[in-house]
Design brief:
Elements lengths: L1 H40 L3 H23 L9 H16 L1 H8 L5 H8 L2 H11 L10 H22 L4 E2 L19 H28 L3 H23 L12 H28 L1 H5 L2 H16 L3 E2 H33 L13 H32 L29
Antiparallel strand pairs: 1-2
Helix pairs in contact: 1-10, 1-12, 2-9, 2-10, 3-8, 3-9, 4-8, 5-14, 6-8, 6-14, 7-13, 7-14, 9-10, 12-13
Length: 414
């Protein structure tokens, strides 16, 4: 009995990061729907970012203060500047660029580009020698193949629709949406690509900062408060009205509380812990799961259309995640040995990844151009959908700005 209990405990400890990341993506999935309802109700996205991270900081502060008093390092000026830049990459700059780009491009394009963050993070991690990559080892090949397969699955979900799946019942929730897009390809695509790059850098910086500041609760609190201040400055510059900062006892308040306490607080803490244990690539490789969960829930609950392409793409994503996870598990020991003998890592057989890096960059650029070519078709599809009968908003029609669908909010958070 003791051996069985020890074996079960060992399995739990081994797959604890995997379980936590799956639960995190489930938490993000609910956020997408409640935030979409809030934005359609009239909530300013930039004000939402500010209030949400204020809530996150207030919720996490007591836990960080009391639980990490003995392990929290002294905050030096250099470390504060590093955390300030980390907050800018994760909150102040990235999220505001992302939400600003929503006004100029289609939600389909945004969902596709943001799902390339995992691939970008993998490429950057390999370049910085933070990720062990041995192409002579089957597990090393599995990491490369798994990353590309997951990226291909996400692109399949976005670019290939296929036959439409018949709804099994009437939607349980009706959400009215604004499909108006003020298209400006150059400005919108620039903001989107920039936000993806800064998001990837944010994940990489987390791993580096945690080595000098190994206090996840305190780091989450600092990022929340500093990010909220940065976002507040940006919001004041773009919107001076007092009405934009006023929220009532309605869906705006609940979305802010949930987004702050759960997503920007608890889930970010979980991601930092997983980043310290498994690395930034491990964390980002679970991001496409929320794409699948949102599509499935939107079909069963909101009554959105589900296409065969989404199902096929979801299966491909899961296969890619399995390959990447298998590859990382086998290389975990090699990574530890590499950190202990970093000066001799190259001589011990860690291959130079230059050919793969060049290939990955070409793939990403090619996908970017493909999305640009598909943009015209996506706009025509959106216009054709505007002729369908409008649903009734459960919040009684306060629709001022929002997303085309739940899939348009697929990646509203890192």
């Amino acid at each position: 009995m003791e051996k069985e209990g020890s074996k079960e405990g060992s399995i739990y400890r081994r797959f604890k990061p995997h379980l936590l990341m799956v639960l995190s993506q489930m938490g993000y999935t609910f956020l997408y729907f409640i935030t979409e309802a809030s934005f359609n109700h009239g909530m300013n996205p930039h004000v939402y970012i500010t209030y949400r991270h204020v809530v996150s900081g207030l919720v996490m502060f007591p836990f960080a203060y009391f639980l990490e008093r003995k392990v929290r390092p002294k905050l030096t000026l250099a470390l504060f500047v590093e955390i300030f830049i980390l907050s800018l990459m994760g909150v102040g700059l990235t999220l505001n660029m992302y939400f600003a780009s929503l006004s100029y491009t289609s939600p389909t394009f945004l969902a596709s580009m943001v799902n390339t963050i995992a691939s970008l993070t993998f490429v950057i991690a390999v370049m910085l020698r933070m990720e062990v990559l041995d192409l002579r080892n089957p597990r090393g090949v599995a990491k490369v193949v798994g990353t590309l397969v997951s990226l291909g699955g996400v692109m399949t979900m976005t670019l290939y629709k296929g036959p439409i799946m018949k709804n099994l019942w009437d939607p349980l929730i009706h959400i009215q949406r604004n499909t108006t897009i003020h298209e400006n390809w150059l400005k919108g695509s620039t903001l989107t690509v920039a936000s993806c790059v800064t998001w990837s850098i944010w994940y990489i910086m987390q791993a580096l900062t945690l080595k000098r500041y190994p206090a996840q609760l305190s780091l989450t609190t600092w990022m929340s408060f500093i990010g909220a201040a940065q976002s507040a400055v940006f919001t004041v510059c773009v919107d001076h009205t007092r009405e934009a900062w006023t929220i009532g006892f309605n869906i705006d308040l609940w979305s802010t509380l949930y987004g702050g306490a759960v997503c920007s607080g608890l889930i970010i803490f979980v991601q930092l812990w997983c980043t310290e244990k498994k690395g930034p690539v491990f964390v980002t490789m679970f991001n496409p799961l929320s794409t699948i969960l949102v599509a499935v829930l939107a079909y069963f609950i909101v009554g959105e259309k589900l296409y065969m392409g989404s199902i096929i793409g979801g299966v491909i994503v899961i296969v890619g995640l399995y390959l990447l996870s298998w590859g990382k598990e086998g290389n975990q020991v090699a990574k530890i040995k590499s950190e202990e003998a970093s000066n001799t890592a190259h001589d011990e057989g860690v291959l130079a990844p230059e050919p793969y890096i060049i290939g990955a960059v070409i793939v990403i650029v090619g996908l970017y151009l493909l999305l640009w070519g598909k943009e015209g078709d996506q706009e025509a599809q959106i216009k054709s959908q505007e002729d369908s009968s409008p649903a009734h908003d459960v919040l009684k029609g306060h629709n001022t700005q929002g997303f085309t669908s739940a899939e348009g909010l697929l990646k509203a958070e890192p």
